[in-house]
Amino acid sequence: MNTTLLFSLLLAAILFWIFLVSKLREKPWLDKSVAAPDKFVTYSSKQLGLWVFMAVATSLFLLFMIIYAERSTFPDWVRVSDPDILWVNTAVLILSSVVLQKAHTTQGNPALQTKLLWIGFGLTTLFLIGQFYAWRLLNGAGIYLSSNPANAFFYLFTLLHALHLIGGMFVLGKALVKAKSKDKLVQDAGMALSIKLCTTYWHFLLILWLALFYFLITT
Amino acid sequence: MAYVSIADRDHDQEHHDPQSFITKYIWSQDHKVIAIQYGGTAIFTGLVAMVLSSIFRLQLGFPDVFHFVDPTEYYQLVTMHGMIMIVYMLTALLLGGFGNYLVPLQLGARDMVFPFLNMLSYWFFLLSVIILMASFFVEGGPTGAGWTLYPPQSISEGTPGVNGGITLMLLSLAVFIVAFTMGGLNYVTTILQARCKGMTLMRMPLSIWGIFVATILGLLAFPALLVAAIMTLLDQLIGTSFFMPEMLSMGEANEYNGGSPILFQHLFWFFGHPEVYIVALPAFGIVSDVLAVHARKNIFGYRMMVWAIVAIGGLSFVVWAHHMYVSGMNPYFGFFFATTTLIIAVPTALKVYNWVLTLWKGNIKLTVPMLFAIGFIFTFTHGGLTGLFLGNVTVDLPLSDTYFVIGHFHLVMGVSPILVIFAALYHWYPKMTGKMFNERLGQLHFWCTLIGTYVVYLPMHYIGILGVPRRYFAYGSDFIPESAYTLNEIITIAAIFTAVSQLLFFINVFWSMKYGKPSGGNPWDATSLEWQTPDTPAKHGNWGHDLPVVHRWPYDYNVPGESADFVPQTVPPRDGVVAGRNHGVSTD
């Protein structure tokens, strides 16, 4: 790690501290008014919950990546030639994210919205099948989980990412079932929020996958 | 949406009172019931860990008299004692128990924002405890690798519990982390979203600030333990080499190649050090509130206290390698981590000064919770001061792995949080049960606990400086002086005495539940919201029809110009009353 990075981190920490303290300057022993509803956070609860969850997941994967980067400098590390299908999978995942975004912005047309959600769900399933196929390819080539740490990390990263995606698909699936039972009336507020949150989560998992993919193919 | 009145809620979220016994007490989504479930389970595991410690203390104090344990069992007992106390007792009790109980009540909310997730959090926690306890009953018993579970030792042949125990331990930790994440999501979201009208962030009681920042630490730090646990599990079960190096084990080369045990240590302590503050920060917050209530005085330096909690939380992420000085590191790293470690003493000392200054000229009521809170200031200061020794690389090296370390961390993060837990249990007992506990019995419990723990842990510093190492089953007479033997006997007797005297607490809790005097809604004349509920114990939904509205901070005690010596947070200001801080000096 170079000094420039360290110092910018330090500067960022100081700036964050100044920001925080400036937000927490109220002198509660003087003020006796009924304060207006706090505008510290303007999200809905579910949205905030998702953001907190994404922070936890980021922490988890970041730690994995740091360990990966460190472990890859050891002499016994053997580079995996990653299967080409990963590129196709990546394209499919990007597409699913785009489709969900489109569904989120298509407010006026419930029929089209439901259709787009189903397409997004299908594309995500396709991505998972593709990932599983990549595993089969590696396995077929005699590259097993325990043969080298590089392989072990490959299996571990793809599995954990897939598990997070499956969690998201469960929520999306629930929204789709609800949409069907409500006769495709996708426009009620709860539904709109579900779609919005799913879209955010899909984007998050896409960015996560891109970062993991970059790591996997470069080392 | 910072506050919600019952009429504004969307239909799904409306709270219907649970009817049957099962939905009311077992599959309950009420934060108060979940808090008691969490607390009860945590106290139970804590009792198990206390019994374990009594058994191995008998071995240490009287190696020739008692033959309860062999060396293998000794390591298993020590390991389980440490892990249970830190994770399954302290973390679960302070955040799962008090977090759940206090957050909605002190913020004027009806419940957590995600009650179902909250219920799930408890059941996952219970599952993790069951998995952990199951390891006592598998072949080979629980793991004996030390609570840090360092590989290669933890998963190499010859370590107790290498077959089933370590697998169950790692699995249990993973489940615990899932449970904690669900609970933590709830605390953070509830604190930011569900405060009642007028409850600004800077009007929250310090208990909530402690729980809030500790939860954020936990959410960011527990993933490190999860990563370490998953990878160690893979090393053990599938034979990957994340952490396992190529080495000779029992005279034969193992099948691993090139893993790095140091990577595990970094991960473990990146979780392990914030963990100290995950336990300490809620305790800091709670003790501040207890001190203010029973000294009938506002907390000294409220803003400083909040900033110190946040600063300690931030700094706790950049000190972890001070647990690894003996693992070997670049001297510049040692310098860096020693510096950050000493810097963290600044906000911590600030808090201690503020507690003492809160007592200064206060109208101190020596109630049982107050006794425990004052006891905490002593044990925490003593334990904290020895931390300054261990934070320095050069002093740490000779003291590392001696009883000095045991004395230090037991005083600072064992005894201190437990004293706060007792302070809190006695303080909120009337709110939880509607009954008053027995004062005399409580006082007896306090003195037995305080004196007992001091007799246990102060001599440990001395025998540590003598060089007596920790994690030894028995000491030969060659290198341990006679005085250490005598002290070891005294420590054991005191430890058993302290352990047995905890019965006083349980007798008090159960006796008072039945025969205690009714406490009324606000026996301590406290200002914060949980004491202003319409019913005691608070009913489902907490607040009856209307949510409270907050007009002031929670520390308006002995405000000049007010007739009562406290003004609850819900009381609107009267004209002409001078604000509390100015002690009669007009601000006009």
Walk me through what this model shows:
- The complex is a heterodimer of chains A (219) and B (588).
- Chain A is an all-alpha fold and 219 residues long.
- Chain A is 74% helix and 0% strand.
- Chain A has helices at 3-23, 45-71, 85-105, 110-140, 149-181, 189-218.
- In chain A, helix 2 (45-71) runs parallel beside helix 6, helix 3 packs antiparallel against helix 4 (110-140) and helix 3 (85-105) packs antiparallel against helix 6 (189-218).
- The radius of gyration of chain A is 22 Å and the shape is flat.
- Chain A starts with a helix and ends with a helix.
- By secondary structure, chain B is mainly alpha-helical.
- Chain B has 16 helices and two strands.
- Chain B has helices at residues 21-26, 31-61, 71-107, 115-134, 165-193, 206-237, 261-294, 302-315, 331-343, 345-359, 368-391, 393-399, 403-433, 439-466, 482-501, 503-515; strands at 248-249, 252-253.
- In chain B, strands 1-2 form a two-stranded antiparallel sheet.
- In chain B, helix 7 (261-294) packs parallel to helix 10 (345-359).
- The radius of gyration of chain B is 24 Å and the shape is globular.
- At the A-B interface, helix 1, helix 2 and helix 5 of A face helix 5, helix 6, helix 7 and helix 8 of B.
